[in-house]
Structure formats: C-alpha cells, structure tokens
Amino acid sequence: MSYSQQALDQLERGQLDQFKKAYASALRHDDDDTLYSLAEELYSLGFLNQSKRIYEKLLKRYPEEDDLRVNLADILIDDDQNDEALTLLNEVSPDSPAYVRSLMVAADLYQTQELFEVSEQKLLEALKLAPDEPAIQFALAELYFVMREFKKAIPLYLGLIKQGIPEFSSVNLVERIGVAYANAGRFEQAIGYLKQIHSGDMTPDVKFETAFTYLQLKDYQPAVKLFNELKETDPQYTSLYPYLGQALVAENRLDDALKALQEGLGVDQYNQKLWSYAADIAARVGNESLTETYLKKGHALDPEDLDMVIKLSNLYVKQHRFQDNVAFLTDYVGQDNLDPQLYWNLAVSYAQLEQYEKADRYYQAAVPYFMDQADFLKPAVYFFREMGERDQMMKVLKAYVKVVPDDAEMADMLETEEENDF
Fold this sequence. Notes:
mainly alpha
C-alpha cells in the first residue's frame, strides 16, 4: 500500500496524527501519479493546504503541465489569493489542452468579484471552443441567473435538460427554469415547471417563487397554501407576508390578511412596507385607530416616504382632524417633491380652519393636477366663488361639468354664469 493510500485510510478513520506522518512520507517516497491522485482526493475532502503543497511540488517538476497550474489556481482562489491565481491562469496559453478549464476557473473568480461582464466573456470564449461541454453551458446559465439575465439563462438550462441532464452540481434545473421564467414575468411557463417539484423538496426561495407565481396567475388557493407552508417552516422569511396578505385579500379574507401581516410585523418590526400594507388592510376592515397606529409606525421608520405621508394625511382629512393635518405636514411644505395630493389636503384643511388665504394658495397649487377629478373640482368651485375669484371658478366649473355632465345643479350654474357674461 502506498503512503498516499495509508494517508487517506487514516483520514477516513479520523487518525489525524498518523495521517500527517503518512502524508509526509508520501511527499518523499510516492511516485508523481500517485501524488497527483492524492492531491485530487485531498482537495475534494477540503484539505486545501495539503493539496496545494503537492501541486506546487509537481509544478516545479513539470512546469509544462498546465493542468497543475489550473488546479493550483483553483485552490488559491478558495484561499482568497486571487492575484496569484490569475498569474497562474494567465500563463496557460490558448493552444493548451487546459485552456478551456483555465477560462472557467477565471470566470468563477471574476464572478466572485462581481465582475460579471468579464466572467461572461471568459465563459463565452470557453463555449466557443467547447460548444458541447455541459459544464460550460451550466456555468454560463448560472452566471446569467445571478446577473438576473433570465432570458439568456433559460435556453441554456433547457439545452441541458434536452441532453438528459435534469440536475447539475446538485442544482435542480427544473427548479432553475421555473424560477427563471417567473422572474422573467412568464408565469404560465414558470408554473409548468415549478408545479413538477414536490412541495417538500422545495427550498424556501423556490417555494416563495412558486407561491408568487400562483399569485400572479390569480390562482390564490395554492398561493395561500404555499405561503403558509413557508411561514410555518421559515417564519423569518419576511418577504412572504405582504404577498400572503395580498392573496388572502383577493379571496376576501380580510381578517386573515390582517392577521398574516401582524405576524409578519412580529418577525420584522423594521419593515416599513409591512406597516404600510397592514394599515391598508386595517382601513379596509374599518379599524381607523389601528390604521393610524400602523401608519405612524411606518412613517417613523422612513419619514421621507411620501406614500406613507399621503396616507396619514388622507386619514386626518377623512376624520376632520384638520389642525392635526396642518401640523403634520408642516415639515413637508416647501419641499420640491411635494405630492399634489398634499396641496389638496392642505387646501381643504385650511379652508375648514377658516384660514382662507392659505387655503387659496394650496387650491391654486392643486388645480393643475386634478382637473379630471370631480371630488376635487366641485368643492373648489364653491371655494373660488366664495373667494371672489371668478376666472378660476369658471375654469374649474367647466372642467367639472365636462367630467360630470349629468350634475344638473352644476350645469345650471355654468349656464347661468355664462349668460351673465353677455
């Protein structure tokens, strides 16, 4: 028995001291082919330093063997010695039998550095040289998957499956294609692949994608089922809660939707979107107190989120809490990106507070944005009439009658005003 075999046997038994002695003897006495095999075995077992030492020894003896360079570079990458690895890989010439493999190792290195375009160039060159090599097709598909270039990844995965390769490097290609189709917005194709996977065999990400795909297809029952399964097995998967709520709302299960979102908030109290959506559901079930609580929580997390600001301002106006609305919006008045809805809300609030000059300022600011909304136009007509601003009143009145032509009262008002002009 060679010293290399003894070393491997002792590793299998967990006898590390004896392994070290046998390994040292192998370096001194075993032939080069045996040492090469030992290096491969040690690398697969995770003993990188011992494998690296053998490859370095062999490369000194056989400097023309590019396979040794590529193997050594692979280990150096695992050890974060990227510059040294690239030096070795760049020494492999294009006419070397190891050149294609060197391109793949280099592509892997550049991908870990998020230099995706360089990685893509390396893999495309490798694919051109070896177009029938499944490992290259898979590596390029995986790169496109990571880059979210799903339309490029799908044909490569499909090509592998057509070759009778449903799994590569422990990656289920049926899953990959399903998720890729889903992310590309091709939900019908996606579900055809995803539903082939047994729920118990799905990773959390694949289960989420499958549930999300059912949701996009408006097939709510399996969506709810899978989201709930994911919630039970991985409650920390916070992305699921808004979509579970959405599916339950679609089934008109508002109380269940609110409960699901509350569970999500119990897991992640710093998710501003969860607070916002929970507030929407609370409003739909008529719980204004809970709506306000959730809106304030979400607003505190991100005061610059104008969507949350608008929702809270709308609530104050709905509840006739005009002073609260004015006070709340004080910090936002004068901002360049102030939403027109807040002009409208301030106009209504100041008018109700009998601060007519300020109300007029915000009605004037809001008019250009709401010339097609009857709920804004009709009160604005009466406001401008009371303010004696006839030109503005007529402009708004004409717009209102155009939007709501069957409002006899307002049509008569317009006719009367136009007659007065003659």
